[in-house]
């Protein structure tokens, strides 16, 4: 008999392994951030807007760089992630930068109970949904973390990107994975550090834009906007072309959406 898949333990192991490499990576440029550079990208800055005086929850916050960028912009921030390595690093980074923020180590599926308060803004971005098998349960947590009238902002890589093989040539994965058919991948490098060899085994699911929006609607949120963008704010793929400062397209995927952003709110 095969063992049931412990996707959470497997992914936690890989995120704890990635974290120290990411902290030291040129991709995250923590030294630049410590000198004042903002890690947030134009899409979320424009969509989330002025956060001064707002209580903001950052779900799947990794080591807190974006969370603390929101804190620098005046929000009162809580960050949540299931990686103990990431949350320790986030807490240390806040102290080093002299910023006030609370970081909570918990699974996103128990976010509401773990944070114990509601927020004006819940935010989550870039590489978050693929780790989650069940978007309905995720969206219920998002809704439960919002105060009535509070806003949710998701900025995520577009599912179009995730259907391809590594060479971006053949379609090998569904754009919307059934829960019972996760995608198993083994990698020798993390995206933020192409130099260091490291063994990573991940379990993930692709989610279509329709599934994202429908989960939020089923959780009782009202959709305010759903936008698709034909550029991404980082150089993640081979063949990336910088079409404007900080805006990248991918040579083999010109003319397709690379990022999706969704804004929704909890009815007052
Ligand atoms: C790609 S990162 C987040 C991206 C963020 N924009 C960044 O680059 O800093 C994905 C994060 O999701 C977290 N994560 C994955 N599965 C999770 C889960 N079930 N509950 C909470 N956090 C999870 C990982 O630990 C990781 O920090």
Automatic annotation (TrEMBL):
Signal peptide: none
GO molecular function, a single term: methyltransferase activity
Residue ranges occupied by any Methyltransferase domain in the UniProt entry: 57-150
InterPro entries: Methyltransf_25, SAM-dependent_MTases_sf
Coiled-coil parts of chain: none
One Pfam family hit: Methyltransf_25
Protein name per Swiss-Prot or TrEMBL: Methyltransferase domain-containing protein
Native source organism of the sequence: Chondromyces apiculatus DSM 436
Lineage: Bacteria, Pseudomonadati, Myxococcota, Polyangia, Polyangiales
């Amino acid at each position: 008999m095969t063992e049931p898949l412990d996707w959470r333990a497997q992914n936690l192991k890989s995120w704890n392994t990635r974290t120290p490499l990411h902290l030291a990576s040129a991709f995250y440029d923590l030294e630049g951030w410590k000198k004042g550079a903002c890690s947030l990208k134009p899409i979320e800055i424009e969509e989330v807007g002025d956060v001064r005086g707002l209580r903001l929850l950052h779900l799947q916050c990794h080591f807190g760089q974006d969370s603390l960028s929101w804190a620098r912009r005046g929000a009162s921030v809580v960050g949540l992630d299931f990686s103990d390595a990431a949350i320790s690093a986030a807490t240390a980074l806040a102290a080093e930068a002299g910023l006030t923020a609370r970081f909570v180590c918990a699974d996103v599926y128990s976010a509401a109970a773990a944070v114990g308060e509601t927020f004006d803004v819940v935010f989550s971005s870039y590489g978050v949904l693929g780790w989650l098998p069940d978007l309905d349960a995720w969206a219920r947590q998002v809704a439960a973390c919002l105060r009535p009238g509070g806003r949710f902002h998701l900025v995520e890589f577009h599912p179009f990107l995730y259907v391809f093989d590594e060479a971006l040539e053949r379609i090998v994965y569904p754009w919307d994975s059934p829960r019972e058919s996760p995608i198993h991948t083994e990698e020798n490098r993390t995206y933020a550090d192409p130099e260091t060899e490291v063994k990573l085994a991940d379990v993930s699911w692709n989610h279509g834009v329709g599934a994202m929006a429908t989960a939020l609607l089923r959780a009782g949120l009202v959709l305010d906007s759903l936008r698709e963008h034909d550029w991404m704010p980082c150089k993640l793929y081979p063949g990336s072309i910088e079409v404007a400062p900080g805006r990248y397209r991918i040579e083999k995927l010109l003319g397709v959406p690379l990022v999706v952003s969704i804004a929704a709110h909890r009815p007052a």
